[in-house]
Write a structure and sequence with these properties.
The complex is a heterodimer of chains A (282) and B (308). By secondary structure, chain A is mainly α. Chain A has one domain: MetI-like fold, CATH 1.10.3720. Chain A contains eleven helices and no strands. Chain A is elongated, with a radius of gyration of 22 Å. Chain B is an all-alpha fold and 308 residues long. Helices cover 77% and strands 0% of the residues of chain B. In chain B, α1 crosses α3, α4 packs across α7 and α8 packs antiparallel against α9. Chains A and B meet through α4, α5, α9, α10 and α11 of A and α1, α5, α6, α10 and α11 of B.
Amino acid sequence: MNALRADAVLRLRSNRGAMLALYLVLAVVVCTLVGPWLNPNRGETLDISHVATQPGLEGAHWFGTDRLGRDLFVRTLEGTRLSLAVGLLAGAVSMLIGIGYGAIAGYFGGRTDAVMMRIVEMMSGLPLIFFVIFLTVIFGRNEYLLFLSIGAVGWLTMARIVRGQTLSLRRREFIEAAIVSGAGAGRIIRTHVIPNAIGPVIVYATLTVPEIIMFESFISFLGLGIQEPRASLGTLIAAGATEMEAAPWMLLVPGGILAVLLLCLNIVGDGLRDALDPRAPV
Amino acid sequence: MLRYFLTRLAGAVPTLFFIVTITFFLVRAAPGGPFDQERTLPPEIMANLQDAYGLDQPVFTQYARYLGALLHGDFGPSFRYQDFSVSELIGQGFPVTLELGSLALLLALGLGIPLGVVAALRRNRAADYAAISLAVIGIAFPTFVVLPFLGLVFGIHLHWLPVAGWEPGSPSHLVLPVIALALQPLSVIARLVRASVIEVLRSQFIRTALAKGLPPHVIILRHALRPALLPVAGFLAPAVASVMTGSLIVESIAGLPGIGRYLVQGALNRDYTLVMGMVVVYSALLIGMGLAVDLLYAWLDPRVRLAP
């Protein structure tokens, strides 16, 4: 297993595009953590003397300001941080649910499996984005609800992947050996099934994060997600779209950052898939 | 084939019923009633309103009535757009959404398939790079970035096309929304077709056709294309879903009077009945399209319908 993992790291490292994308994502993450402190402006201060200023050095508004005179450098970085946090958090939640659900369904098999996967199938037939909109109508706009509903969208595919892996692991000798030596189902799932199914899980998790970032931006763009004065990439893009005639940078800056993030995360995910596929040549 | 259709239908109907039931009871579970305002209404008026909307009946009576009305295509009155029923609003908006969505799908298919084929035939040449860059755009630039950007370039700077708005019978208002909506499925289709054509061209029957001395265009059009298009048929249902969710955004940005815009506005106004009706309509559309695509797939590929 360790040799396999070392091979995978080696393959990933030799994939220049994926490594570049990985470094870019890390650079964006570091920028969102450190960047706001490098600029004297604060995201929620209204600078009345610089309303809708172009990007430049004037008043240290490096990315310009919006219609209220808020600094867009700081706001964009803070918005990116929020979007990334939502992506990672909701991604982790959906990964945990998906792994647990898929492993249980695959391990116990039979009727349990049939019922559990039937539920997954039904849920993936639902137009979940409309459902999320519907939930925001009923329960008001609320960030926790957003996390919850995004998590509920993400785990379905993960559950399918883990179940498939578990089904094939279930028939292997070392699982039989564990059963014979008296290990319980919970223990076998934790120590034997999940660690061996982790490769595809990692790949899919990497691909889930950009999907969730996109989903959050979509909902926030419509005005149903993150609310003012807080910013996420979606709300910034929405504000930019209404001001694009007078202040195109308000659209181009957050749009560009979202594009870089989505693209790089997808490339990293593809790179990981190639690296973890044992059939691939070193 | 009929048996296959019936099993698929037996799966679809309960899903739709489930959606209707869930939306109905979620609305009833919502905190606050639809007539809560800053000013409390006199109890007589409240009672009249409750009576007019049937809200004074027991929940299950209301549920039975709602189901009965739904079967007749009646979604009840809108709470916010006064004097309009939800069915009227949907009826007004649906043709616009349908036109937008079907044009976008046609563009995605009509451009994506040839692009994918050409990219596969001329790997590492101009068409291939075009397909790859399109795929990159499709991944990295969501609709809500692309459409304002297109408006900025073609509307505000070049003055070629209107940025937003809608006039019946004026196709120029639809150009940018359709392009923005088509981009994402277009990129996926081009990528799918490219990969599957490359794979099909390696198979034995293509080698046979080559050995028989058939001209290349006959090999591509008559032998390679049909099996190569199977993944595209499989992608049609997700493509419809993506176009439908995308139309929420596109209609809101471009100000098109389709049902997507009513859904977003209804959500912002907390117009329960309108949003409920929209969720049911969208679900029914998606499930219906999914069913149609499954049938198409089964027709194209006998292995699907013969599988146990």
